Amino acid sequence: MKPRILVVEDEPTILDNITYSLGTEGFEPHGCATGGEARAALSRGPWALVVLDVGLPDVVGFDLCREIRRTSNLPIIFLTARASEVDRVVGLELGGDDYMVKPFSPRELCARVKAVLRRFSPAPVESAPAPHGAFRIDEDRAQIHFSGVRLILSGTEHRLLRALCAKPGRVFSRAQLMEIAWDDPGAALERTVDAHIKSIRAKLKEVSRDADPIETHRGFGYSLRENL
Length: 228
Ligand code: CA
Hints:
Blueprint: E1 4-8, H1 12-24, E2 28-32, H2 35-42, E3 49-53, H3 61-71, E4 76-80, H4 86-90, E5 98-101, H5 106-120, E6 135-138, E7 143-146, E8 149-150, H6 155-166, E9 172-173, H7 174-181, H8 190-207, E10 214-217, E11 221-224
Parallel strand pairs: 1-2, 1-3, 3-4, 4-5
Antiparallel strand pairs: 6-7, 7-8, 9-11, 10-11
Helix pairs in contact: 1-5, 6-7, 6-8, 7-8
Bound molecules: calcium ion (CA).
Residues 10-11, 53, 55-56 line the site of calcium ion.
């Protein structure tokens, strides 16, 4: 079955180009031009991934992303007209998995879609994550539970937390975490790792107010505390 991709973009030419390209690359794209249409389409899932324009006529793409993230870790690639929005796209509470700044080539977008889907599908387990007191990793469902609560994570957050949980106590540099969680680490900035970690921490705090299982190693990177 072809992966179904929901494309939300209000500029008809861009929408046509994207859906055409995705169609030729073996996907089943479905286009819509407004947030309202997107909500209706989302309820008719399942979807493999959403391509989401930030500037829609009836809703800001960021808000739609937040709505989606309340219930799902469906991969999301943002389309943005402004490079200045990129920090918001990858950062904090938004939980986007990747982004494209307009203008971009549909071919490049298809490559990103494939990369995000690869990254999102459960990776072959080289080192099976050890059970860790507070965390439980469900590899089959690609879910991570913390203190018994399922975390709603973006694909990138999932890969980062999974890596930390696999080796409690081990300190990972930002560059190492990027290697693990990004397919094209060269394209990302090290501070995007910080933004994703910040977002993961916020989600852990929602589960347990005083929880702080991720330790920062200044100037180097992060580790998961061994004793929680
Ligand atoms: Ca737009």
